[in-house]
Structures are given as C-alpha cells and as structure tokens.
Amino acid sequence: MTQVDFSEVAHGSDRLRLALDAAQLITDDLGAPDQTFFKLSDDQGLIGFVGLQGAGPDRLLRSLVVLPGRRGHGYGRILVKRLEAVAAGSAQRLHLLTTGPASLFRALAYVEGDRSKAPADIAATAQFSSLCGPKATYLVKDIG
Ligand SMILES: CC(C)(COP(=O)(O)OP(=O)(O)OC[C@H]1O[C@@H](n2cnc3c(N)ncnc32)[C@H](O)[C@@H]1OP(=O)(O)O)[C@@H](O)C(=O)NCCC(=O)NCCS
Q1: What is the pLDDT of residues 83-126, one digit of tens each?
Q2: How large is the average pLDDT for residues 9-22?
Q3: Contacts of 6 (CB under 8 A, 6+ apart)
Q4: Topology at the third CATH level for domain 5-142
C-alpha cells in the first residue's frame, strides 16, 4: 500500500455525490453546515470518502464509500480510523446506521445500539429517518 492522503473535501464535490449515488448512499441531505467530508487518495488517485455530521459529544459517521476498483485493500478501515482520529478531539461517541457490511465496523469496536435510545440530534438526522428499515444496523463507538 502506498502512502495515502486524508483531507477535507467540499460538501458540493461532484465526485463525492457521484460516489455516494453509485453506492446507493444518501445524497439528498448533502450540504448542511454541520457536515464535514474527507477524501482518501494516493498516487493512483481518489480512493474514497467518509463524513462526520453534528456537533457536541455525539456525532454521526456517514457516507463511507470506497470506489469499486479500490475495495478490498483495507481502505474502508483506514477511512474510519482517520475519521475517528479527527473526531476524537471534540466528540465522545460516533454513531452510524448502515445497510452495508456491519462486520467492518464491529471489527473496529463499534457495538450495536438501541435505536430508540439514540441521542435526539442523531435520531433527527436524515440518515436515521431514511434508513429506517429492519435491515439497517445501528452501531456506536465510544471514542472519548
Ligand atoms: C463498505 C466499504 C466502504 C468497504 O470498503 P473496503 O475498502 O473494501 O473495506 P476494507 O478492505 O477496509 O475491509 C475491512 C473489513 O471489512 C470487511 N468487508 C468489507 N466489505 C465487505 C462486504 N461487502 N461484506 C462483508 N465484509 C466486508 C472486509 O472483509 C474486511 O475485514 P477483514 O479485515 O477481516 O478482512 C465498500 O465496500 C463500499 O464503499 N461499499 C458501498 C458503500 C457502503 O456500503 N458503505 C458502508 C455504509 S456507510
């Protein structure tokens, strides 16, 4: 694996929207002021994205995507770990809802939470209200 760069990306990035659309992840709510997105890239180009949403001790990890041609090389794990490092300075917990592979997050010490007990600002996000099917898994990690 070559050296990777993890850096903030504009909300309005076309590549972010395209990557999320292609992975069937939510894009309708992109652009809120409390969202920050990051991209991972290397000398071969863009690898993927991940986002952080909210303020205060509880934040939403969202929009994790690795471009199809770059999957299966540990980059999803790197994106999550880099995001955790960014959030650790100001947040206590990361929350996420996924219909994707929960095993990736469980291996990084995310544990299943009770959706009915999610903090109000997390439960109010579009991610939570739109990913409401029984197949979505709610996971939480204490990073404080
Ligand atoms: C999910 C996703 C980000 C994983 O990216 P990746 O770079 O391939 O993941 P990694 O290589 O870092 O894999 C980390 C672990 O998760 C596991 N994993 C990754 N994708 C998986 C999948 N589709 N099904 C089951 N396990 C998977 C890997 O086996 C690996 O475990 P290991 O270390 O024990 O081998 C990527 O497949 C993707 O962008 N999918 C579409 C969007 C999505 O579902 N996002 C997650 C919801 S927010």
Answers
A1: 999 999 899 999 999 988 899 999 999 999 999 899 999 999 98
A2: 93
A3: 38, 39, 40, 78, 79, 82
A4: Aminopeptidase (3.40.630)
How many Å lie between the centroid of ligand 1 and the Cα of residue 67? 11
pTM: 0.95
| Position 116, amino acid | S
CB of 97 closer than 6 A to ligand 1?
no
Q: Kindly report the number of other CB atoms within 10 A of residue 118's CB atom.
A: 19
Q: Are 28 and 126 in contact (CB under 8 A)?
A: yes
Domain boundaries, the chain: 5-142
Alpha-carbon distance of 94 to 141, in angstroms, equals 5
Structure tokens belonging to residue 119 = 């903090």
Ligand 1 atom closest to the CA of 77, numbered from 1: 12
CB 68 less than 6 A from any atom of ligand 1: no
- Cβ–ligand 1 distance for 66 under 6 Å, the answer yes
